[in-house]
Amino acid sequence: MPPTDSALQALTYGPTDGTADWCLVALHGWGANAADLVGLAPYLNLKNFSMVFPDAPWPHPQAPGGRMWYSFPAAYDFRRPHDFAAQADLQTSQAKLKTWLLNLPKMTQIPLDRTILAGFSQGGAMTLDLGPQLPLAGQIVLSGYMHSDAQPPVSPRPVMMAHGTVDPVVPIALAQQARRALETLGQPVTWHELAMGHEIPPQLMGLISGFCEDLRQSTENSPTNPLG
């Protein structure tokens, strides 16, 4: 698939016959890439969705073929404060990803208000960053955390968050903090604490599918929807 912005490459999965009327965009974590996530797409079984998986712009310094949205300080363990927002590589990724997302409907023929933005770990942090700036249908944050203070979204949307109770990488307290910040802004959050580590197990795939389908069906059946 030719990228909508030459700065980001992406893989796609889903119907090619024009029947997809919703879009799920999924952002990978630190050291992974789009191919890692696209392998999970069949297990979501989202028949009405086009799924798009962009690669982060920066090569990972240790993982061959891996990508990253930004770097971490040496020996960083999420248990001490760090000003991520001041990092130039994160600022560049934010700008490139936002441009790419704004241009995405030209490729998918699906508007942003029928697009759900999801992300795992570092990708979840990017989702919390950029999601509120765009008129999305919803957001999914898996094993994520916040870079900076939460911002009010430009349009109403639900958020699904899931985190492992024994996550050895991103402490669950950081996700709980993000949840409280979103709820303070009035965003409805569907929260799942699972007995897992830093991973995407089969149980979580079902929760993602359910959130996406429930959102699609509720929007289709809304009395304000001219197609409903």
Provide an overview of this structure:
The protein has 228 residues and is an alpha/beta fold. The chain has one domain: Alpha/Beta hydrolase fold, catalytic domain (Rossmann fold, 3-Layer(aba) Sandwich), CATH 3.40.50.1820. The protein has helices at 34-38, 41-44, 88-108, 122-130, 172-184, 202-220, and strands at 10-13, 22-27, 49-54, 58-59, 67-68, 115-120, 138-142, 159-164, 189-194. The two termini are 32 Å apart. The relative contact order is 0.14. Residues 1-6 have low confidence and may be disordered.
Q: Averaged pLDDT, please?
A: 92
CATH architecture: 3-Layer(aba) Sandwich
Q: Give Rg in angstroms.
A: 17 Å
Helices and strands, in order, run as EEHHEEEHEHEEHEH
Q: Indicate the proportion of strand residues.
A: 15-25%
* Number of distinct beta strands: 9
Strand order, sheet with most strands: 1-3-2-6-7-8-9
- Looking at CATH, the homologous superfamily is Alpha/Beta hydrolase fold, catalytic domain
The CATH topology assignment is Rossmann fold
Number of domains: 1
Helix amount:
25-40%
Count helical runs.
6
Pairing-aware structural class of the strands and helices? Answer: alpha/beta
CATH class: Alpha Beta
List low-pLDDT spans: 1-6
The largest β sheet comes out as:
7 strands, mixed
* Morphology: globular
Task: Give the distance, in angstroms, between the N- and C-terminal Cα atoms.
Answer: 32 Å
